[in-house]
Every structure is written in C-alpha cells, then in structure tokens.
Amino acid sequence: MRIGHGYDLHRLEPVAPDGAGRPFVLGGVRVPHDRGPVGHSDGDALLHAVTDAILGAIGQPDIGQLFPDTDPAWSGKDSAHFLAEAVRRMQAAGLRVGNLDATVICERPKIGPVKSQIREHMARLLGVSTEAVNLKGKTHEKVDAVGEGRAIEVHVVALLVPA
After folding, report:
1. Cα angle 81, 76, 25; round to 5
2. Which CATH number fits domain 2-162: 3.40.718.10, 3.40.50.720, 3.40.50.300, 3.30.1330.50?
C-alpha cells in the first residue's frame, strides 16, 4: 500500500464582476457563495489536494509540475481533468484508492449542506464507493486569512492499495 498527502490553499475574493474570484467549486460541485477562489484553473482546492495526494503516493510530479499555472492551456480548466490524469497514472502503477480522507477548512460556505453531493461526485471521479471517501468541514475560528474568510485550505490523505 502507498499513502499520499495533498494540500492546497486558495485566496478567496468577490466573484466577478466585483472581484477576481471564480465561481466557488469544491470537489467538482458548484457551491453558492459570494466569494470564489483566485486561481489559474477553476480553483477547486479540494480536487487539487486529492490530485496531489494520489500523485504523491505514487511518487509522481505534483499538480503544479504537470499542469503549470504559466501554461494558458490550463486557464479556467475543470480540475476533474487534473484528477483524471492522476487516476490514470495511479492505475498504470497497478493501484487503486483504498480510501481517501479530506478536511476542508473555511469559514464560509458551510460544507455540511453539500457534503454528500461532493463525496458522491469525488467517488465517481475516483472509481470507488462513496464509503471510501470521507469529507470533513472545519472552520479556522476566525484566525488568519482562512478564518477571516479570505482563503480556503484543504488537506487530503489517500491510501492506495493494489488494484
């Protein structure tokens, strides 16, 4: 078995036209919010962290190396594309996701109302049962940029097992 850790953080700003924020997408699910991530792709911090957890577990280059933010081809790209490449590489290595545990840290929006939808969507993308994907929402207790609602932070641990 192999274990990988993924991490991502994105600044949150008002959504265009009031600011540079993109629509708020988390785990491939659009979540209503007045702020959104500033990023080169769609800014989905959860899928970015999942992608890096899988790539880390198989000892491959990270998401920034494979899909650099200096390449205009990735501008606004759906992060499911990045995850699909990580899954392809994982399968080529003869592995599959045994389970995945993710923690999303942000003050708003609350994750609870969309948690099951996000878990189901991520399970489909990973080709596993929903029970193999865990998602927790936490706040940062109003401390620092995350706690002030100016950023979102995500940690993911993935356990990969032989396919």
Report:
1. 75
2. 3.30.1330.50
